[in-house]
Amino acid sequence: MNSLQDILKDIQERRFSPIYFLMGEESYFIDRIERELYHNVLSEEERAFNQVVLYGKDTTIDQILDAAKRFPMMTEYQLVIVREAQELSRVVDQLESYVNDPQTSTVLVICYKYKSIDKRKKFYKALQQHAVLFESKRLYENQVPDWIQRWVNNKKRTINLKASHLLVECLGTHLSAIEQSLEKLLLLVDHNQEITENHIEEHIGFSKDFNNFELRKALGSGNVAHAQRICHYFSLHPRQHPIIVTLSTLHLFFAQLMQYHGLENHSPNHVSRLLGIPPFVVKEFQIAAKRYPMKSISFILEKIRTADMKCKGLGVGSISEKAVLRQLINDIGG
Questions:
Q1: Which domains does the chain have, with CATH numbers?
Q2: Model pTM greater than 0.85?
Q3: How far is CA 16 from CA 12, 98, 117, 133, in A?
Q4: CA–CA separation, 166 vs 155, rounded Å?
């Protein structure tokens, strides 16, 4: 399997493969490779006669093969891009004979998003042998802040860790949405300044004081009053702060706090590595561990599961999400 960086490097140096089969759950990296090919294979003038874009829902394997077997006009390559190729999942292996003997003057790009092909089939083995095969895996949430740091550093800019975590808090693992927000911040924040959580609040619209990160911190330190203020803010902005995300964040926090209690070594570096949290968050766990013994954490985890069932309308009558979260905060705060 080819790595993203190797693929991008080869494309930028114009070492093209006749076939790129891009598959997997994370569409961002597939779009990134397709965009790089679009900008590097052909010039603007060459695209008019030598670029074809097809969509899986509206095309057939025969149409893809017809396009791929044509010869370029007055240039070295032609570019054929098949988007939404996952719509052809039942017949895509009919491309196997072409994969085994591709047209070398064609760059065929197959974007097979949100799923992967069966790795046991001959088609997969043919791709391994004759094509650039890339599987785009979704990043885990705890990997995204590091990805943000690398993305910003590649632009010769800096962003602090709290700002990176706030973006993940607000946008989850949706890399395309995060990239759009980062591009906006690069334009609006002075080139000599580090991007901070204040810039995110000012330019992106997410509050640095009222978010799941701060809710977790308030509950961990026993500041129930501030936790309730955050809850009220969430109720005023439900689209930005869906309760299902809040419950998931709290469940993860207290589950990790349970793990923290079970560790013999509580040094910041050790805790950070084993729990998958940034070092600056470890202090919150140290504070929370003094307030919540293991027995109370088991009770809290059960209360979070009950709150989740209430939000889904299971076992109770109609109750607002705000009321569910308020009650949960009271239960946790004791």
A1: 4-135 (3.40.50.300), 141-203 (1.10.8.60), 212-333 (1.20.272.10)
A2: no
A3: 9, 17, 23, 13
A4: 20
